[in-house]
Amino acid sequence: MTLQLTVPNMACSACGETITKAIQAIDPAASVQTDLKTKLVSVETQASETAIKTAITEAGYSIA
Question: What CA–CA distances, in Å, run from 34 to 37, 40?
Fold first, then answer.
């Protein structure tokens, strides 16, 4: 499943790395791409959308 999520408070490459690590903690095989300009996080994962969103918010980021 591919998810496209907008994370408005993602500001730098370290933010992208933190989000990637949070997602890969629940799905180590997940493919994560972050785009700082558009604030988009694209995730290819077997985990549920709810689990991915929870991982991102628990890492300290909001989802629009």
Answer: 9, 6
41 lies in some domain: yes
| pLDDT for 63 | 96
pLDDT per position as a tens digit, 5-28: 999 999 999 999 999 999 999 999
Which residue range is the domain that position 6 belongs to? 2-58
Q: Domain tally for the chain? A: 1
Distances (CA, A) of 13 to 42, 45, 51, 61: 15, 21, 23, 14
Binned at pLDDT 50, 70 and 90, residue 35 comes out as very high
